[in-house]
Amino acid sequence: MKFDRKDILGIKDLSVDEINVILETAESFLEISTREIKKVPTLRGKTIINLFFEASTRTRTSFEIAGKRLSADTINISASTSSVVKGETLIDTARNLEAMNPDVIVIRHSAAGAPHLLATLVKQSIINAGDGAHEHPTQALLDMMTIKEKKGTLTGLKVAIVGDIAHSRVARSNIYGLAKMGAQVVLAGPATMLPRGIEQMGVQAFTKLEDAIVDADVVMMLRIQLEREKQNIFPSLREYSQHYCLNSRNIKLARPDAIVMHPGPINRGVEISPDIADDLSRSVILDQVNKGVAVRMALLYLLTGGNE
Amino acid sequence: MKMLLTGARVIDPGQKIDAIMDVMLADGKICQTGVDLLKSVKSKDSAKTKVIDLSGMVLTPGLIDMHTHLREPGQEYKETVASGAKAAVAGGFTSIACMPNTDPINDNRSITEFIKRKALEADMANVYPIGAISKDSAGIKLAEFWDMKEAGAIAFSDDGKPVMDAALMRHAMEYAWSLSLPVISHCEDTNLSAGGQMNEGYYSTILGLRGIPVIAEEAMIARDILIAEFTKTSVHIAHVSTEGSVRLIRAAKKRGLKITAETAPHYFTLTDEALQTYNTSLKVNPPLRSAADIAAINEGLADGTLDAIVTDHAPHARTDKELEFEYAANGISGLETSLGLSLRLVREGVLTLPELIAKMSLNPARILNLPKGNLETGADADITVIDLQLPWTVDVHTFYSKGKNSPFQGWEMQGKAILTIVGGEIKYADPRLNL
Question: Which of B91, B138, B171, B421 has the fewest CB atoms in 10 Å of its CB?
């Protein structure tokens, strides 16, 4: 299949075929990262700009390593504040970057839809590395790749996603992706964290963790943003962790071979108890990070016309 | 100089007139309406009378937009009184009432006088300033209503900055009542709407944008209805956007309370589903709601729950809109699309043409106590002539308004104001009329 998409803005737009092509391409790139010399010349002469308007260590590093392993030149721009505060609009920033002729712009932004705005403005390929509470497509792709590796398939699996669904771009992208690939998605969180109309995305939502993880093949715990406490969507981390922390007791409700995922960074003892997070028979959190590099290599490769 | 407008279908909801008639204007007033007025002219001073044949057209009392934002003083790059008043006549409006959220806020006599003076200089539509409810629209201290009334203010509102303090709103309604001027309430509980970008629902969920729940509007409408009932005063509810709001207002009217209400064309034309492209021209407050809300708005218009259709004309510069959705300004430039969009209600069978005209002229005049909105002999010669059939395409670049922020760009319309007469003078004539 020819992959002729200009941008990767969200999983919502991707077809099953496209997701499969990305995952297969990523699988073929996994091996490069295990070599002694972790570099291939595939994207030599290509320029990739990582434009991060929001703090990120994992995702930005992952994109940078992905580009470098393919021999692309990668440039990181970290704007700690929003473009508005900085004084230059996103549109002007984009036009300036465009004038320097990069091949791919990777953008993370706190405002939902910012990558879409960028994509309409510049001719370069745009990869959404997370926009507000909207989408985080590369995270969902690396999650799907991890699940597929551990479970052999995505079809027919029961995946429980637990935590602050309302503010989570990881949840939205995974809901789209997993549903397209034939998995059953169930959600859990207090009602304050379950956004209105979420069932219309084809998921079941529960207010108790236990109800969601029963017989789950995969349990994906979301990060709690500590500052959300101020919005009164939960009373305290203490109380949240008493009812929504995955631990050795409640995980027995899931299937015996269930895997545990987390997009990171973990608040240990809040979302996942340390013994579960460190139990390598269940926890695949570091596999996710590992797959992240391969997925991002695959996208850079496909968007720059790699499979033509 | 006299003017004789002949052969049009004259619609005057106040006098329940809907018939082919001629209308004679003299000295800025309507001096005669009737059949075959041309004969009486020919016998006397035909040279002094300008005769305009309007066969096939609809002639109505000049349209009145009781909810406009002109950006002067302070944000003249978005709109001036002159550019807004010009856009108004191009859209068929002979009178507009402008909200006080300028910079500085219109919360005192001098700003009100300034706006009136700018309107006189512009010499286009009549411009009626609406004074602020509170000083700086900060929601703390009452502004000087009496002073502003003397300077020309015709209503009070903190539009855009909802009055969260119920006691202040109570006093505003009582004090305005004693001056016989209406209070216009922008109903939005800002605790419930905090940080919101669009209607809260399925589409805000999938777009990852913070939602504004319908209850943010409805809770404050309920509050203001209760205050009006308790204090035996009145209140006018601005830009109604939800099903629950229509229900609350309908029930209040049924109980005999003095509640009036308005909506705007985008609230019966567009839903939040359209936001999926993050198009900032669709960002407006209150936000675009659901299809069920549109159905309820239509019902409210049809049964009289909603008295007026306003533009909520909110002009912005490109720099205010060409931003991430979250940072973009709220508002739609509406003066030049309002009539075209509202005429769709007639074709859809929601309203009869006379009902629509009443909601865009007679009813706003009554709510604001303006001696306008009818074609009685002796009334001000404010007249709008509409070609119901004229097909046209919305092109923001041809707007007289400085605000090109319209989600209706490229829309195919049918029906347009082709002649706008203010005080007996032609202020806008479509080139196709060949006057």
Answer: B138
